[in-house]
Structures are given as structure tokens and as C-alpha cells.
Specification:
111 residues; mainly alpha; elongated
Length: 111
Amino acid sequence: MEKENLRAKTEVKQRKRRRRLTKGYKLKVLQEYDSAIHSGEKGAILRREGLYSSAITEWRKRLLISNIESVQKHALEVENLRLRKELDLAKLVIDVQKKILDISALSTDVK
């Protein structure tokens, strides 16, 4: 009996698994938290969801960073498209110049 009691006290308990929160859940909680205007509402939301205010701050920071990155990515895609069009035009001009040079070379050979 004493050995069982001692074993129960010294036995390592399995840790709880951390929650993995989806982006949709985080956005929903952020929206609800930001729309809370009455005294105590924000704290009630945090208690109900089992969160700390630091999690809200971190989520907001990451959301801002991801929005900035997506805007930068879009700007890079637009710039890439503009440069591709410019390159295509430059290739066309070079081809026309080559053809003009070939024609002028032929006309001087014929004379």
C-alpha cells in the first residue's frame, strides 16, 4: 500500500498538449476583443477563451506583419509584370534592328 502511494506521488504526469489555434479562430477572437467597448468585456472574453492579453497583442502584431508582407508581395508582382513587359518590348526592338541591319546589308551587297 505504501509503495503504491509513493509511486503515485513520484510518478511523472503526462503534460497537457498545447492548443493549436487556427487563423480563423484568432481573427474571430481579435475582432470580438476589438469590438468590446464596455468595462470588463475584454477581460471576460479573455477568461472565456482561456487567453492572456499578450496572446492578443502577439496575434495582432503577426496579423500586421502578414498584411505588410502580402502588400509587399503584390507590389513585387506588379513590378515583375512591368519589367517583363519592358523586356518583351526591348526584345522586339532588338529583333527589328537586326532585320533592318540584315536588309541594309543585303542592299549594299546587291549594288
